[in-house]
Amino acid sequence: MQQWDVIVVGAGAAGLMCAIEAGNRGRKVLLLDNGKRPGRKILMSGGGRCNFTNMFSSPENFLSQNKHFCKSALSRYTQWDFIALVQKHGIAYHEKTLGQLFCDDSAKDIVEMLLSEAKAANVQLALQQQITAVSFADGVYTVTTPELSRQCQSLVVASGGLSLPNLGATAFGFQLAEQFGLKVLPLRAALVPLTWQPGDKAVFEEISGVSLPVTAEANGTLFPEDMLFTHRGLSGPAILQISSYWQPGDNVVVNMSPDTNLAEFLTSQQQAHPEQEVKTALAKLLPKRLVEKLLELNVFTNQPLKALNPKTIKQLADTLHAYVFKPNGTEGYRTAEVTIGGVDTDYLSSKTMEAKNQPGLYFIGEVVDVTGWLGGYNFQWAWASGWVAGQYC
Fold first, then answer.
1. 51-54 sheet: strands from edge to edge
2. In the chain, what is the straight-line distance between the N-terminal and C-terminal CA atoms, in Å?
3. Which structural domain range is residue 360 located in?
4. Is 382 found in the same domain as 265?
5. Is the distance from CB of 45 to CB of 61 less than 8 angstroms?
6. Whole-prediction pTM value?
7. By the 8 A CB rule, do 390 and 18 touch?
8. What would the pLDDT profile of 217-226 be if each residue is shown by its tens digit?
C-alpha cells in the first residue's frame, strides 16, 4: 500500500498547478491521470498554441450559480501571476485579440513548463491510471486502481468535465462528489457550436464557410465577435460565447451589421447611386453569398435603391440588425470546449476549495460549477483554483 500526503486526480491545467503548489510546500504528491500523456486539453487548445490566460480576466467573465464564489481564487492567483511564470520560463507569447494570450510557438511549451515545475517540486506522475474505487476511513482516503491501492490524507479532484470525450473526459469527478454527499448541478455543453433545425439546414448549409462580424444575443446577454455558417449550424467566437447562455428552445438574435447603421447606409447609397440594386449595396457591407441567400429567403426584394421608401428601408435594416435564428440544439460534448454546471460551490470553501462536509477532499477546475468565457478565462480558473487548493491540501 503506497502512502502519499496528497493525491491529485487529473493531470490537466488545474491538477498540474495544484500538484506543483502542494509539492512546493514539501508535501509528498502523486498526480494520477487516465491518459497516456499529461495536459491533453492544454496541448490541443487555441489551435495548438494554448490561449493560456486573458489579460482582462475578472469575476465578471465567469458563469456560476454563485457568481461570488470565484472571486477569492481569482484575486489570489491572477493572470499576471501566471504570465510571470510563463516569462520566467522564457516562453514567447502574444496577444491575439481582446486580451487573449497565446504561445508564439506551441502549447507544448506550457505543458513542458508545468512538468518542469512539477519535477522541481518532487511531484510523482502516474499515467494510464483507471481508478475503480475511492474510500475514506479514519481520516485517510484509499484510491484503488486495478494494479494497486494508494492512501493519502488529501485527495484533490481535477478530473475536468464531460467536454471532448476523445481526450479522455469522464464523469469520474461528478460521481465522486455525489459519493461523498456533495450536490452536482445539472451539466450541459458550453462554448459549443449551435445546430440547425432541419428546415434551416436545407437553407443555410449552402453558405457554409461564410463568416462575418456580428453581435449575438440570447437571454439578455450579448457578445460581439465573428459568426461562421457551417454545414451543421452556427459557429465562430460570437456563437461559442452565446452558447453558454442559450437554452433549448431559445432564439439567438444576430445583428449582422453591428458597426454600421443600415438604414443610414442604405439611405446614403440611395442618394449617391439611385439606380444601384439593393443586393449590390448590401454586398458592400455583408458577404455576397449571405446577401444572395437573404434575397432567396425574401428578406428583401431586389430592386433599384430609388424604389425604396423610408419605411421599407427601416424594415430591412431592423430585420438585419436583429435577425432571429432558432437553433435546434448544440453539437454537444464532442466539440464543446467546456462543461457548464458541476460540483455545487455551496458545498466548497472558496478560500481552500475543500469540501465543507468532507475533510481533505478538494475539487478544482472544470469539475466545479465555475465556467469562463471563451478567450483564456477557463485556463485562468484552472490555474487559480489549482493554486489555491495547493496552499492547503
1. 51-54, 100-103, 93-95
2. 21
3. 2-188+339-390
4. no
5. no
6. 0.95
7. yes
8. 999 999 999 9
